[in-house]
Amino acid sequence: MPALSANKIKFIRSLSQKKFRDEHGLFIAEGEKIVAEALASGYKVKEVHHENEIGRECMERISCLASPSPVLAVIEKPLLTPDNLLEGLPGNISGRNPLFLALDGVKDPGNLGTIIRIADWFGVDAIFASHGTVEVWNPKVVQATMGAIFRKQVIYTDLADVCRKFTAAGLPVYGTFLDGKNLYENLPQGDKCGLVVMGSESSGISPALSELITNKLLIPPYPADAVTSESLNVAIATAIICAEFRR
Amino acid sequence: MPALSANKIKFIRSLSQKKFRDEHGLFIAEGEKIVAEALASGYKVKEVHHENEIGRECMERISCLASPSPVLAVIEKPLLTPDNLLEGLPGNISGRNPLFLALDGVKDPGNLGTIIRIADWFGVDAIFASHGTVEVWNPKVVQATMGAIFRKQVIYTDLADVCRKFTAAGLPVYGTFLDGKNLYENLPQGDKCGLVVMGSESSGISPALSELITNKLLIPPYPADAVTSESLNVAIATAIICAEFRR
Questions:
Q1: Measured over all CA atoms, what is the biggest interatomic distance in chain B, rounded to whole angstroms?
Q2: Domains of chain B, CATH where assigned
Q3: Is A226 exposed, middle or buried (0-12, 13-18, 19+ CB in 10 A)?
């Protein structure tokens, strides 16, 4: 069985680190479903390794997973030019009910990946992320997207700029706060659009960005006066809000 | 600094395994918020170890976390008698709009923990779980609940029995299916109650249980004909459904 060379193994393993993903412009994706989605997408898949070809032991050495899947792909990061993507936003979005997310310091890779999967399901038009948000090509993020990463872009940029652009275009900027207003009573009755800012796991939306939120929302617990967990997980809150926008 | 004895360290470490949790009737919880919730709850906290007392190195040895928190507690598992809890259910629930979850083979500890946190937020009356569902005292489950585990019980039992009890009591049994009916158009307009069955990450609701679902639901993607991820994560779907029940 033609195993991979030591150098090749070292190279693939190095892509688990952001430094080397940046240097080579590559990232890895693991699992049959995700690799199949990569191959079907417009992404340039450079290498696919299957355990039937390289052997289980070799797969365990290149995998980032505790339980390696049978297949791993090395993929080129797409060339994103955030400035071009931001140019003209939100005005150049012609779809109905444009909905955007802005992630302010989401640190957990699983949360970011899950949010991308949610954004894909609910047809979110674009995801903006602060520079303090975990990198989208982190293997754990890729994994948690279950393939949605090949359909939804994450644009790392200054979120204050983004908020100001939406406000200037006359579009609402939403965010969740414990002293916000009931989600179910404070969205427009008909077409719903705008930017939804989601905060970090530990500290929520940063004070500087909070000032730029035009509509502060609360996902009400049940019953309203219940003694519950202090908050919902950021991906869970994102899902409930997106579902309500798309309802 | 009085570090822990080698035997004590070995004992606490052993509680990361189900076998030893079962044997000793104990589990561990880590993190300041979760340990504070444990102490404020009715649970019997046997030991609390803080890195200021035992030293960082010692904490790293007893912790289950990649980045240990400053505090770890050893806690007695509550004595649950599923039969008693099930006795008379759902009829003995006197609250308004009783809502129950049934988890059919949820394997990922993070998902189970997140679902418990959601159940706490939305005032779910009880969580049933199949015997194939991950154990609730797994440290990763405890962690993901962020403390909600001390307020919400998970009852491991035969879910087919549970479904039949609800049906016999004239209450609906819901589940999500890709060929289900639009969630937003198929719940009662007024008071909403019942049992919601959520399936496993890999294969959804098992065929045997599917037959006992009286109301098959779909969380619609947006737009309705969108090419999206094949599904939502089970915790995400649970959140959207609970939010809709409690809306």
A1: 64
A2: 6-76 (3.30.1330.30), 82-246 (3.40.1280.10)
A3: middle
- The gap between the terminal CA atoms of chain B, to the nearest Å, is 53
Question: Tokens 């008693």 sit at which residue?
Answer: B84
Question: A82 pLDDT exceeds 60?
Answer: no
Q: What is the pLDDT of residues B105-148, one digit of tens each?
A: 999 999 999 999 999 999 998 999 999 999 999 999 999 999 99
CA B222 to each of CA A42, B202, B225: distance values in angstroms, whole numbers, following the listed order: 22, 23, 7
Residue A235 with chain B: CB contacts under 8 Å: 233, 236
Hey, what are A83's tokens? Answer: 């400035």
User: Of the candidates B148, B228, B236, which has its C-beta nearest A229's C-beta?
Assistant: B148
Query: Is any Cβ of chain B less than 8 angstroms from the Cβ of A41?
Result: no
Mean pLDDT for the stretch of residues A172-188: 93
Residues of A in contact with B232 (CB under 8 A): 117-118, 121, 239
Cβ-based contacts of A148 with chain B (< 8 Å): 228-229
Mark A43-64 as b/e (b = at least 16 C-beta within 10 Å). beeeeebebeebeeebbebbbb
Q: Tell me whether residue A179 is exposed, middle or buried, using C-beta atoms within 10 angstroms of its C-beta: 0 to 12, 13 to 18, 19 or more.
A: exposed
ipTM of model: 0.90
d(CA A135, CA A19): 11
Among B118, B184, B221, the residue with its CB nearest the CB of A247 is B184
**Measured CA angle at A121 (ends B223, A82), to 5 deg:** 95
Average pLDDT over residues B217-221: 94
Of A50-54, A58-62, B76-80, B204-208, least confident by mean pLDDT is B76-80
**Mean pLDDT lowest for which of A33-37, B55-59, B96-100, B218-222?**
B96-100
Tokens representing B63 are 């912790």
Give the pLDDT of residue A57. 93
Q: Is the distance from CB of A235 to CB of B236 less than 8 angstroms?
A: yes
